[in-house]
Amino acid sequence: MSIEHQMSIEQLDELAGRAAKRILDSSDVRLVSHNDADGIASAGIIAHVLLRAGIPFVCSIVPRLNEAAVERISSQSCELTVLCDMGSGQPELVERLGEAVVLDHHYPRGDGSALEDSALEVNPHHVGIEGSFELCAAGVCYLVARRASQMGGWKHEDLVGLALAGIVGDKQRIQGPNLAIVEEGIKSGYLVPSRGLKVPDYPVEELFMRCYEPYLDITGDEEACHNFAAGLGLEGKRVDELSEEEGRRLADAVALKLLKGAHPTIVEVLVGEFYRAPAELVPNTIELADLIGACGKLDRAGLGVALCLRDRSVLEEARGVLAAHQERVLEEIKRVEGAMREMKWLRWAAAENLVATGVVSSTLLRYRYPPDKPLVLLNLRDSEVRVSARGTRAMVHAGLDLSSALSEAAESVGGKGGGHAVAAGAEIPKGTEQRFIERVHTIVQQQLEGKTA
């Protein structure tokens, strides 16, 4: 690690300490977080801190921070609002919430100073750390939990599994601050490294029937999945019960299928080291991220938070929610793929009432199309259009910035957008879809041509 990077981590730790002190000094807290896996894991970490500190709190999980969410949140009177996985890009909304702490990893609005007067903000981007790849919101919250434990005299190491669920859910790299968190977890014994296929601990044939990660040519086909498992001699065996040789056999077979379809780099992402967190109800952090993410997307976020708080009574219900979510996502992937349209600088599709725009767009980009241009998905709802856009790190290195592109394009049609360079979202008014897509296309062209010019 470079001296500059080490200094950045120390600066971030100092900010985390200030946030921890502000939280512990509060008489009561309004905890608000995003409804994806990273956001729910973040809420779980801070909820553990508040419980250990004996601080009363109310928790709200929301799909986005907008006017409606602010009105609902403001109706709960508390001394301090803690926002997780949101807030850095919405300073005008945060300032309406009174005293606030923002624990985020998305790109800050403008020069990053907009929140200085209204909130105490911990965001890796402010100290030169890339929040898209190197630290998620759950990682930020883990750093705050660590500093809070030092002040309060309780442990924090057992929360590292939730930080990993956030890293997995946001598909981040194990490098920089993420790597430091993982190394701390291994040293404390609360993370156990494993090698093989990075998948949930399902029976092998069920794995490929239910999961869209990896998305194979047999995914969702019961007979094909049964034949695949039987052909490997793994029928009826759970992934976590496989011997080392059986695990290699499965990983090699999946890698071969991926090399025939998806771009080769996906193999590196899916086969390798992953981690189990023995303190959690679901130790496989990949499966844990799937569970809490599904609860959030199907409006059962309370179940996800309860899982993070290790309430065993909700586990089977949460697994039922995940099964329903997986079935719905596989249907949506097929529906969106059939509606895909090609432009020179991007691919895009529009579909009605999707529950998993981010998952669908990510899966299609990773497994069904060459990694040559970003993918934009419009989710047509009753009163608005929600947008999800995904690129690759190679595209970002070539100049792509989807956060900027979606923010500018959405504002041009009366909406709002933002996120990360590699993955972003927006909300736009109905009837503006074509103008929005054309504007995004123009901006992406300028970004990519400008970088190579």
TrEMBL record:
What molecular function terms (GO) are annotated for this protein? exonuclease activity; nucleic acid binding
The lineage's top-level taxon is Archaea
A Pfam family per the record: DHH
InterPro entries xref list = DDH_dom, DHH_sf, DHHA1_dom, SSDNA_exonuclease_RecJ
Which residue ranges does the record assign to the DDH domain?
31-167
Gene3D superfamilies assigned to the protein according to its UniProt record, in alphabetical order:
3.10.310.30, 3.90.1640.30
Tell me the ranges covered by the DHHA1 domain, including all copies: 373-445
SUPFAM superfamilies registered for this protein in UniProt? DHH phosphoesterases
**PANTHER family given in the database record:** SINGLE-STRANDED-DNA-SPECIFIC EXONUCLEASE RECJ
Listed name of the protein: DHH family phosphoesterase
Q: Which organism is it from?
A: Methermicoccus shengliensis
